[in-house]
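Section 4.2 – Deliverable D4.2 (structural model, holo form)

The reporting period included a commitment to supply a predicted holo structure for the target in complex with nicotinamide-adenine-dinucleotide. Inputs used:
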Amino acid sequence: MPAENVIITDQLQASLRALTDASTFSQIGVLVDENTKRACYPLLQPFLPAHSVCEIRSGEVHKNLTTCSQIWQWLTEKQFDRKGLLINLGGGVIGDMGGFCAATYKRGIRFVNLPTTLLAQVDASVGGKLGIDFEGFKNHIGLFQEPQQVIIYPAFLKTLPVRELRSGFAEVIKHSLIADADYWPNITSRALEQQDWLSHIRHSVRIKAWVVDQDFKESGLRKILNFGHTIGHAVESYYLQTAHPLLHGEAIAIGMICEAYLSAQYGNMPSSEVKQMEEFILSVFGHHHLEDHHLEVIAGMALQDKKNEGQTIRCTLLEKIGKARYDVAVTTGDIRNALQTYKKRLTL
Ligand SMILES: NC(=O)c1ccc[n+]([C@@H]2O[C@H](COP(=O)([O-])OP(=O)(O)OC[C@H]3O[C@@H](n4cnc5c(N)ncnc54)[C@H](O)[C@@H]3O)[C@@H](O)[C@H]2O)c1
Ligand SMILES: [Zn+2]
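Output (structure tokens):
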């Protein structure tokens, strides 16, 4: 996506004014969940022209057709026409689903993302992937479409629970691992509480926008953003069905460690770098206990990944820290072994 569409600012008022001055909108709507309504909307409300608010329930479990119906219903009741604007104020769930609803309502109205989680600020709000979950499949229904603008206001992070902050950090780590070895020490030299979030947001957005700009529809290069996600998504989907679901970034952290093992097995990733990555990620996220009988099922779930072709699992691996290679064919057996190595890691 063109980098000029993404603004990182500490001047929320000026950015909103510039947005509403630049175009005329027949109506403005703000999509929130109960948390962003409480924590973020008050920072915005005084600076917006007349608008209405649509509140949905928070959480991945509500990223579905039922909630979309509510949003479309609300747009219809408020008589939004094609000149309306929807502002998505929230994390990746609000951004993905609000964008999807806006892009399909009356064949498309404009929308703007105001990401309020670290994950959405460094990843989900940029790149135009919109969608919802369907019958247990994540992001199964959706489309690619750019928002009118993305306004990143880092101060929203002040109210974000630390577990959510850490989840977003996984994507920051990923961006450095796939594209920028020079940045890696800026990440690994500090504990979570000392991280420089503004610098990380700038860095991640630059990398993501650079990648997406070259390959919007993910026919090649964009696949590097999937590092950690083949195994990570399988882990995430598996635990979503249990009483103890993992956050997206927590699952991706496990995925990145396992895919680092595969990177050494399939490529030239030096074992010293694998160890470095593994130690750092474990120091931030801790070690998640996997039961033996889970491993086979999780490995099988990797076959469902949208990036696969037929029965072959296509994975993005690292050649070294800072350089990724996409479309590497791996087997479910490899994935099971990598999960096994991760499981045993704690006892080493
Ligand atoms: N489109 C993409 O390219 C892309 C990329 C990565 C992830 N995603 C999607 O993003 C979603 C995950 O996003 P997420 O991690 O932001 O989760 P989320 O949207 O569920 O937000 C996490 C929680 O934090 C709360 N919250 C949000 N901002 C807050 C704030 N400032 N203060 C206090 N609480 C706040 C929310 O209400 C929610 O309870 C997943 O559905 C994933 O599929 C999309
Ligand atoms: Zn991700």
